[in-house]
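Two proteins follow. First one:
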Amino acid sequence: MGWVTEHAPTGAEVNACVRCGLCLPECPTFRLTGKESFSPRGRLMAMSAVADGVVEVDESFAGIMDSCLQCRACEVVCPSLVPFGRAMEGARAELAAQMPSRTRTARHLLVGRVLGSPGLLRMATLAVKVGQKTRVVRVLPSLLRSGFAGIRPVKPVAAQPGSTYRALGQRIGRAGFVTGCVMDVWFSDVHAASIAMLQRAGYDVVVPATQTCCGALAAHDGDVKDTHRLAERNVVAFANVDVVAVDSAGCGAHLKDYKHWAGQAGELFSKRVFDITELIDQAITSGRIPKSSVDRGPVAIQDPCHLRHVQRIVDAPRNILRAAGYSPVEIDPDGRCCGAAGMYSLLQPELSHQLGAAKADQVRQSHANVVASANPGCEMQLRSHLGKGYEIVHPVELLWRAVQEDDR
């Protein structure tokens, strides 16, 4: 049958691979399994076979595609610049079209509708809050119980929809702030620190009330229709700002790729998107945010895949930690995936657990009990695998703490 949708991997994307194999040692699932089919090269060969009509989109093909973390570490070393992330999203879109199921429909309802609905999210948040304050979490399956362990205590929303937070000192621009979906209520302390530091950096911070979920999870799961819808809504919501600031690495990577999902308007939008670490690092470099003279000790730094491999941001988080008075401790120079990867921990629990345990071991070997991570999924994965005795926070949170302490 071959491909049936316009979103399928293109011949240019798939055929760009020269089968050199440089991607193999960078791929987490290949390293764990040793299977060629669980490597980027193997997955591209499977896509090519479907395009040529050699094999069908069936359970075997689905297993090969669904095992991918979409960490995109392969793209960093690829000499042919294969757009592997785009090809994978196309393959997932084909799976959704050719192999519909109740499970996939339920997933699409979650990532395409629930995460974009404030009312439904409030209900989900209430359930999480009840679970955190009662013993009901103890009766949940171990997989869900582990997920609860990774979530921060639920707090009130820090970024109020429709609000504007004025710049402190000289104003340099207007920043639209992305609240995201679960970030807004499950990681509100990150939002509070980000807004405070943007104000210190000279930005008026605007929180558009009409914004919605970025759509990253929908795109990764092949939910094309809702991915387009969410992107188009956000493009309109952030039309009147100078920069778009986002403090979730996974969201930022997707927002910077809106050209594919919202055309020319999406491309113009993406050019204004910055990860919060980029904007704060710029402010530190220019002297708008002073560096601390206090030695606050070591911090283990974990690089989220969508910050390091996709956005290619490596130095900014480290510069922020140094400006706060901390000494970054490298735990993994290659920045291998922690295994969180959106819904991957739910859909591929065994592989996710192995990767999470390995990342936790790297942290333990660093002898630091504070870990800096710029992505909520990575933070949850680390917290659930490290357990008590470790604090996992966003780099900008540590800078905001340092600024408050230095101001006293």
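Second one, unrelated to the first:
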Amino acid sequence: MRDGLVRVVLKAVARSLGAFELGVTRWWLSRRGDPRYRLTGSCNGCGKCCEQPSIQAGVLLWRLPMLRAATLWWQRVVNGFELVETDPRFRLFVFRCSHYDPVTKRCDSYESRPLMCRDYPMNLTFEAVPPLFPECSHGVVDRNAAQLRAALIAAGVEGEKLKEAEARLFLTEPPKDPP
């Protein structure tokens, strides 16, 4: 389902407003020292992030039926996201994207994709534990990796325990795939 002119324009307006809000929010968070992680790697086109895009809802969005219905309508009609399931534990909406082709692993409306698609995986650098897909060639490294590694070594952590701690705390660069 390729986007027509109306959808392209609606998405562009929404993307502009969302980018402004996101910029202000990230500026504010940066004053606190966020994001915690630095993004590494580049997209390898695995498509895992496109198979089931999800949105974590705020409390008001989750609890107010009219706001929730309007949001889900927008996702379905404008973005082409069909609701597959909800996860109340995390206030999560999980979708199937009508623009994603699982055979080619490509988006048929890549140029007009929503902000949430454009921002992935950068948005994960603000998470406490970034949930990257194992297939994803992106990685994250804690911005204070050197200091944290030095503290672990000073505390006497070594060998396999050190390697395990480095992996769990995102202290090392992910391995590079051979060219």
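SUMMARY FIELD: The radius of gyration is 19 Å. The chain has a mean pLDDT of 91.
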